[in-house]
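Re-run requested by the PI after the first attempt was lost when the workstation crashed. Everything re-entered from the original request form. Ligand of interest: heme C.
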Amino acid sequence: MHLKKLFRLGIILLIPFILIFSQCHSSKSTEDPRGDAYAGSATCVNCHKNIYSSYVHTAHFLSSGPADINTVQGSFALDKNIQRFDAHTQVRMEKRKSGLYQVTYKDGKITQSDRFDLFFGSVKGQSYAYWYANELFQLPISYVANAHQWINSPGYQSNEPDYERMITSQCLGCHMSFAKSQKGALPLFSENPEGFAKDSIIYPIDCERCHGPAAEHVKFQTENPEIKEAHNIATYKSLTRDQKVNMCAVCHSGANNVMLKATYLFKPGDTLSKFMRVVPSNLSVNYKSIDVHGDQTALLQSSKCYINSSMSCATCHDTHQTQRDYTLLFAARCMTCHTTSNKCKLSNQLNAAQLSQNCISCHMPSFSSKLIIAGESGALVHTHHITVYKDEAQKVLNWLKANNTKALAIH
Ligand code: HEC
Ligand code: HEC
Ligand code: HEC
Ligand code: HEC
Ligand code: HEC
Ligand code: HEC
Ligand code: HEC
């Protein structure tokens, strides 16, 4: 702590140099920091206008970005901007001329304050980070959306606001498209500090993050407007099933994996095991211990639906659109396979509307996140282990009964 304060002063001397360097760099060109093979999402809009204009409203496109009054969801209003730790200690979220800050007060005196520089997430909640030289640290307070409230950041000890948790490239690797790694400028806090070139960051999850580099594709299609098939880009149908799933698994296999290299440049068809050693979470054993980084890939892969079919994530999800809570749309996806021979066992008790409206609640129920918790409840996350959940099903049946549907019970 003391060392950090000292270093903080030292770094003020360094900042002018860092600024000069980064300006030299950024004035050179507007090239894509990932290299010439990448075209940048802005070029896709010319030919894929519909996809682009719906995609920009999705959770993926809101997965990270610069923090400002428009992107930070929590309240800065008086009394709503306080997170209390004990009788002496609180953190206040404050608006200042130079930005938004998290400010720790001890007995009314400011002991630390750092700026909201980046946000992560937009649906269930948000976490924030501040720059410290070329390193990123998570701010002590996060926001949880269902309770509309600030919380002590997930996994943090509750007795002291903690500004020292380093944000790693693994975290950025799932929430954005690129950040060039550098050696961290502050070796004092960790033996192997990670830093990032600020001007190399590409927010959020863009088109080429999933589809791979597309500059050659753009060039070809621009020069050959009469050709209506895709060239110089991996087409989805040409991929094997594992390759299809890995397009998503690269970020949706839980957050405990051993990273072998950064995943930013993973492209369709690449071998996932070259990028990470997947550490199976214990979710498939205990499906209720789910967290917000719920391992959808392993959970789905443990389901009979997956084992006995050739489904991929795209069988149910169109990632170019927001489909959250589109219960009937998802039920229709189930019904592409579960019509006649493979029907729900309750088909003789429930009518078609009751079945499809509650299909997901009964077979892919939500459980409280063990990670983002505020007040009584946690953020809700759907399990991807698709099976029969007798307790959850009975709850739905009880609800139907209470709402004047004829008496129902599972036999
Ligand atoms: C000059 C026009 C043009 C531009 C610019 C363009 N594309 Fe395409 N793209 C096409 C055409 C034409 C097709 C084939 C028809 C279709 O699938 O829409 C296609 C198809 C695709 C496919 C479909 C592959 C499949 O599974 O069938 C992907 C993915 C794709 N483009 C990604 C991109 C991305 C990412 C960008 C921006 C970096 C981009 N395109 C920019 C014209 C363009
Ligand atoms: C680069 C990492 C990355 C890749 C690749 C990726 N995702 Fe995600 N996905 C995320 C992150 C991060 C979030 C949470 C974003 C947020 O809520 O801010 C997310 C959220 C989602 C959601 C929740 C959307 C919502 O509205 O709440 C779905 C569904 C999803 N992803 C499906 C997929 C599928 C299917 C694929 C593959 C086609 C995929 N993702 C590929 C990182 C990724
Ligand atoms: C392995 C990839 C991965 C890593 C590493 C990762 N995340 Fe996530 N994160 C996700 C995905 C995927 C989701 C969305 C899950 C869902 O909707 O159920 C998510 C959700 C979130 C959410 C909730 C967002 C929302 O809109 O619901 C926050 C906040 C968040 N992550 C912050 C972080 C921070 C901070 C780090 C690093 C300390 C981090 N994540 C590391 C993939 C990752
Ligand atoms: C989260 C991963 C992800 C992101 C981000 C993403 N796509 Fe896709 N895209 C997919 C998947 C998966 C498919 C295959 C869907 C299928 O065939 O069922 C696809 C299919 C396509 C296709 C061909 C099929 C179609 O729907 O016409 C085009 C064109 C395309 N994407 C362009 C884009 C563009 C442009 C962007 C950015 C605005 C983008 N994609 C962002 C995952 C993604
Ligand atoms: C691509 C086809 C396909 C889709 C889509 C699909 N399933 Fe399945 N599902 C299967 C197959 C195949 C089985 C295995 C049947 C068997 O074992 O005889 C199965 C099994 C099941 C089972 C029994 C699981 C168990 O552990 O006994 C349930 C419940 C189920 N599916 C519900 C769903 C729901 C709900 C959806 C939509 C969210 C869905 N399925 C989507 C193909 C599919
Ligand atoms: C059988 C259909 C089906 C398949 C296949 C499927 N999903 Fe989902 N997924 C759903 C449903 C249903 C929801 C809940 C949507 C809702 O109501 O908001 C969901 C939600 C999600 C969410 C948000 C989780 C939450 O509740 O916060 C993520 C992330 C996600 N899926 C990722 C994936 C990934 C990655 C794959 C492939 C490994 C995948 N899904 C395959 C049906 C499916
Ligand atoms: C009210 C809760 C509920 C709803 C709604 C519901 N199910 Fe079921 N489903 C169950 C229960 C409970 C069983 C097991 C019944 C038994 O074994 O006696 C079951 C059994 C199944 C099975 C057979 C599993 C096996 O063992 O063979 C499939 C497949 C299935 N459901 C699919 C669906 C699909 C698809 C939908 C939506 C269109 C749906 N269910 C809607 C509760 C529900």
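Saved to the shared folder this time. The chain has a mean pLDDT of 87.
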